[in-house]
Amino acid sequence: MKKILIANRGEIARRIIRTCKRLQIQSVAVYSEADSDAPFVFEADEAYCVGPAPSSESYLNQEKLLEIIRETGCDGVHPGYGFLSENAEFAERVTEIGVKFIGPSPEAIRLMGSKLEAKATVMNYNVPLVPGTEYAISDPEEGRKIADGIGYPVLIKASAGGGGKGMRLVDASEEFVEKMALAQSEARSSFGDDAVFIEKFVTSPRHIEIQVFADQHGNVVHLFERECSIQRRHQKVVEEAPSSILTEELRQQMGQAACDVARACNYEGAGTVEFLLDANMEFYFLEMNTRLQVEHPVTEMITGQDLVEWQIRVADGKELPLRQDELQINGHSIELRLYAEDAANNFLPNIGHLRRYRPPVGENIRYDHGFAEGMDIPIYYDPMIGKLCVWGETRGIAIEKMIEAIEDFQISGVTTTLNFGKYVMKHPAFRSGNFDTNFVATYFQDPSVLEEAQKEEENALSAAADKIWEQLKKQEDSKAATEKLI
């Protein structure tokens, strides 16, 4: 593969460009009018405007993307994550013009894109599933009878969706019909498909995902797990690898199950198999993401592997670079997604102008981002500014390293999730490893704790400044007294 078009933007585009440069592969960036001054545009070997700011007119514009692919002579397309990364039609159209889609086949994307079809497929490999329906439900009364039989609480989930959209928690029979109507309406507007299904709600769940890789020669491996239980609105904010609670035996069981999911759909490339882990340490298949994950850096940091390079190797028809017994976990890594959000105000987006933007640097600190000082955070896309990642020999060292990195981060002009990240790192539940996906609901009911922490920091800084001033004044007084004697 000699030339790759990156059908994405921001930090993931920069991430792919870095690997392309190291492999001496030409990179082609596409950008919207809102991203014309973004760093990734200038770092790529070539860059082309793909349309106006709205993603529907730019990064999701398949016709324009295909036109640029043809004109630039690319022999590969990397979709990153989001946008068209899990769009089977786009993967198909790229393949039809003789260009390699760096990802799984359109068939695998379609299969795993439907939660119901995915569940039916993995059943043949005895992968554990959450009790629930194996088909779409459209009649609310039928759904209520099924839910009554499963036992409450239950989750109503959109078959075609993700990211918490089209999902409703139902605690009692009398609220089922209303909740189902809401779930279907949201699923229809978000995905164009109002098919829903029902699952037993797993109490105190941990969100554990397994990174898998498969090549065109039948080889499948997993690169261990990531713990993704610190979430807001069903979306991850803090991720770490490995999980603090998995035994080696359970790690092997979940890894084998994840590889079986990949085998079940004749998978190729990078994928992530997501599981729920209950309070009894029983795990259940949730879904498969048929792309590179946002949180892939923590896996790279504990394995020493470049997952984008692996993707390109597989797309080139090469075998996986390592076998399962050659992969090892080294130390611990944590990632904080830095969002332009106000955690004290229900994590609402808080975009603005990056007046000061000085990310921390140092040993065992990695920061993947798509911005520079003086830029505006655009309103058209996800409010994630970057991903702050650290590595330590142990989980405890990694936690302290993250706190240090957060404290060294200089940013102004926007409100971010940095303080929330520090709050998580210092919380006893997180430090002990005794937490689940309800962390925010359980421990973050009063966001004023962030303001108190900020005041404590400001007071400490003020006290330190006063102390320095006093020392300087003493030095000046001493100097003046000495000069007077002379």
UniProtKB/TrEMBL annotation:
Question: From which domain of life does this come?
Answer: Bacteria
Keywords carried by this UniProt record: ATP-binding, Biotin, Ligase, Nucleotide-binding
Presence of keyword Iron: no
Which Pfam families is this protein grouped with?
Answer: Biotin_carb_C (PF02785), Biotin_carb_N (PF00289), CPSase_L_D2 (PF02786)
Question: InterPro entries per the record?
Answer: ATP-grasp (IPR011761), BC-like_N (IPR005481), Biotin_carboxylase_complex (IPR050856), Biotin_carboxylation_dom (IPR011764), Biotin_COase_C (IPR005482), CPAse_ATP-bd (IPR005479), PreATP-grasp_dom_sf (IPR016185), Rudment_hybrid_motif (IPR011054)
* Biotin carboxylation domain sequence ranges: 1-445
Q: Which residues form the ATP-grasp domain?
A: 119-316
**This protein is called what?**
Acetyl-CoA carboxylase biotin carboxylase subunit
* Source organism of the structure: Wandonia haliotis
Query: Its gene?
Result: accC_1
